[in-house]
């Protein structure tokens, strides 16, 4: 409890808030690119502790939310194939595709199972060898190493009925895509602690170098986030642009060498579609040719028609940081956690879900 209390100490938070207020002189927009940061900011009311000069905007930090509709459509096509068991993390079930969702397919008789790790899916493959077990590889660099480990294990143990549909995303290319789009005015990034424990803080150097945007790797407790904001404000006021680490207890400049090694062994960078951002070059992870027998994209015919987005849904703009959920005409009306129209309302890390739960109408 001492550890938790330390990072949720109200007096320390107030002290940081006062220091931010004294330091911040010019108006700035800071983007958090992690769904856990978004929820923590709302849950702990951190916006109320910040001066008017600081505007926090949520970006594409929710892995479920940025999964493109066409990728959801592929998973639905898989679920409709006879003899196929689709395994996935639970937050993907209700994400809407063009005309259905995995939850709807499951209700209609498809064999869709929620697992808590990729190795749970591998275990199912061993238990029912007469069926094809497909795991949906969703998420940023945080989850990719465990998926790579499962693919490598399946390859070595010759699990002939196991495969992965990889829709993994790489965060730094998305940050560059946001900045190069020209329609977003951002002064600094609150970078995700969990992703950075894998890729290392040095992965953001390209963003700083190319766009002169400060980046601070930040933890998820209230004091972490406030300190990260202070570090960004100090950089901006001092006309500096650097990569700094607030989350020193978890992140390093070089990341996790073992995780990076197995990712590189199993995956290679590829162009990837993002909800709201379009196709970003080398922003996804494709399974390497040496493991192609375990790649659902080569194992099954997963061509799908062009995806269609729900009419009136503003998820694309919200993920780019050019709109907030209240700007969407569906928000709180037809779109709610009970009836999610867009992906940003589905996940517990989605910006719309955070606004719905914590933001006063």
Give structural notes:
With 361 residues, the chain is of the alpha/beta class. The protein has 2 domains: 1-307, Rossmann fold (3-Layer(aba) Sandwich), CATH 3.40.50.11740; 315-358, no CATH class. The chain is 39% helix and 17% strand. The protein has helices at 2-7, 10-23, 35-43, 63-66, 69-79, 102-107, 118-127, 144-157, 171-180, 193-199, 205-211, 222-237, 257-266, 296-299, 315-320, 351-358; strands spanning 28-32, 54-58, 84-88, 112-114, 132-139, 162-168, 188-192, 215-218, 243-245, 267-274, 278-287. The chain has a 5-stranded parallel sheet with strand order 2-1-7-8-9. Helix 2 (10-23) packs parallel to helix 12 (222-237). It is globular, with a radius of gyration of 21 Å. Residues 1-5 have low confidence and may be disordered.
Q: Topology of this structure?
A:
Elements: H1 2-7, H2 10-23, E1 28-32, H3 35-43, E2 54-58, H4 63-66, H5 69-79, E3 84-88, H6 102-107, E4 112-114, H7 118-127, E5 132-139, H8 144-157, E6 162-168, H9 171-180, E7 188-192, H10 193-199, H11 205-211, E8 215-218, H12 222-237, E9 243-245, H13 257-266, E10 267-274, E11 278-287, H14 296-299, H15 315-320, H16 351-358
Parallel strand pairs: 1-2, 1-7, 3-4, 3-5, 5-6, 7-8, 8-9
Antiparallel strand pairs: 10-11
Helix pairs in contact: 2-12, 3-16, 8-13
Uncertain spans: 1-5
Class from secondary-structure proportions? alpha/beta
Main sheet: which strands, in order across? 2-1-7-8-9
Instruction: Give the CA-based shape.
Output: globular
**Main β-sheet: number of strands, strand sense, barrel status?**
5 strands, parallel
Please tell me the total number of domains. Answer: 2
Number of extended strands = 11
Nearest-integer average pLDDT? 94
**Kindly, what is the distance between the CA atoms of the first and last residues, rounded to a whole number of angstroms?**
34 Å
Give the CATH level 1 class of the largest domain: Alpha Beta
CATH architecture classification of the largest domain: 3-Layer(aba) Sandwich
The whole-angstrom Rg is 21 Å
What is the third-level CATH name, the topology of the largest domain? Rossmann fold
Helix content: 25-40%
Q: Spell out the helices and strands N to C.
A: HHEHEHHEHEHEHEHEHHEHEHEEHHH
Helix tally equals: 16
Classified in CATH, the superfamily of the largest domain is HypD, alpha/beta domain 2
* Strand residue content: 15-25%
């Amino acid at each position: 409890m001492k550890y938790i209390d330390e990072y949720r100490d109200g007096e320390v938070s107030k002290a940081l808030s006062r220091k931010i207020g004294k330091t911040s002189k010019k108006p700035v927009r800071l983007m958090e690119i992690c769904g856990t940061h978004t929820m923590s900011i709302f849950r702990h009311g951190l916006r109320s502790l910040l001066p008017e000069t600081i505007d926090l905007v949520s970006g594409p930090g929710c892995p479920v939310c940025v999964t493109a509709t066409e990728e959801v459509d592929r998973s639905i096509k898989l679920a409709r194939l006879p003899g196929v068991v689709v395994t996935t993390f639970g937050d993907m079930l209700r994400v809407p595709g063009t005309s259905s969702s995995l939850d709807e397919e499951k209700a209609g008789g498809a064999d869709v199972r929620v697992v808590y790790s990729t190795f749970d899916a591998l275990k199912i493959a061993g238990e029912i060898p007469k069926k094809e077990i497909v795991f949906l590889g969703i998420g940023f660099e945080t989850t990719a190493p465990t998926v790579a480990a499962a693919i490598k294990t399946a390859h070595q143990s010759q699990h002939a009925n196991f495969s992965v549909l990889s829709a993994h995303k790489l965060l730094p290319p998305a940050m560059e895509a946001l900045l190069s789009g020209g329609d977003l005015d951002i002064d600094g990034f609150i970078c995700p602690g969990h992703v950075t424990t894998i890729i290392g803080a040095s992965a953001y150097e390209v963003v700083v170098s190319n766009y002169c945007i400060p980046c601070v790797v930040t933890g998820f407790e209230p004091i972490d986030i406030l300190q990260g904001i202070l570090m960004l404000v100090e950089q901006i006021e001092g006309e500096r642009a650097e990569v700094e680490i607030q989350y020193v207890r978890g992140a390093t400049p070089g990341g996790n060498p073992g995780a990076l090694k197995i990712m590189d062994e199993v995956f290679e960078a590829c162009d990837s579609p993002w909800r709201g951002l379009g196709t970003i070059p080398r922003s996804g992870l494709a399974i390497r040719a040496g493991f192609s027998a375990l790649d659902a994209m080569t194992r099954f015919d997963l061509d799908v028609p062009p995806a269609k987005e729900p009419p009136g849904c503003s998820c694309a703009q919200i993920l780019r940081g050019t709109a907030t959920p209240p700007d969407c005409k569906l928000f709180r009306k037809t779109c709610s956690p009970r009836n999610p129209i867009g992906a940003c309302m589905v996940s517990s890390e989605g910006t719309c879900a955070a606004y719905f739960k914590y933001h006063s109408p």
